[in-house]
Design goal:
Layout lengths: L1 E7 L5 H15 L6 E7 L11 H9 L14 H6 L2 E4 L2 H11 L7 E3 L14 H4 L2 H24 L2
Parallel strand pairs: 1-2, 1-3, 3-4
Helix pairs in contact: 1-6
């Protein structure tokens, strides 16, 4: 089983979008039983809050439900539990490294590292208001991530 944790600042926009987009992709391919997919925050600001309404609407526009999600902050123990910790931007990586105490197993990456735009950051709609750009970044990143994982599994 591949265990993936998506991370952003508050766990109400980008990381839950990535969580539910990848869950949808995995479900549509019949791969549910080989993945564990979650999302978390690096901050405590939004703990307990649901997906931000414009992000929830963007997911719903694309037939993806996100009910039941509540923001939570990742902990040091999550580093040991998850195989991959995928951040939305460089600040998320910095804060994740602070929480985990480092990345000795090279588990932490950016979502867009799984695309032709490696090193770039997922647009933050909290500041831009542009949920379409975030949707494009997230879906492209999740598709690239899933393709990479499945390719590596098939080559083992």
């Amino acid at each position: 089983m591949t265990k993936i944790l998506f991370v952003c600042h508050g766990n109400i926009c980008r990381s839950p979008m990535a969580e539910f987009v990848l869950k949808d992709m995995v479900r549509k391919r019949g791969l549910d039983d080989i993945f564990e997919i979650e999302s978390a925050a690096t901050s405590r600001e939004e703990i307990g809050n649901p997906v931000y309404p414009p992000a929830r609407r963007k997911l719903a526009e694309n037939g993806i439900a996100c009910s039941g999600h509540r923001a939570w902050q990742m902990t040091r123990a999550d580093y040991d539990h998850y195989d991959m910790i995928i951040c939305m931007d460089a600040n998320n990586i910095r804060n994740t490294l602070r929480i985990t105490g480092g990345d000795p197993e090279n588990k932490i990456s950016l979502l867009l590292d799984y695309t032709s735009r490696a090193g770039q950051q997922v647009a933050d709609p909290w500041y831009t208001g542009n949920f379409d750009a975030t949707w494009r970044d997230v879906t492209e990143g999740c598709e690239g991530l899933l393709n990479r994982i499945m390719s590596e599994r098939n080559n083992v």
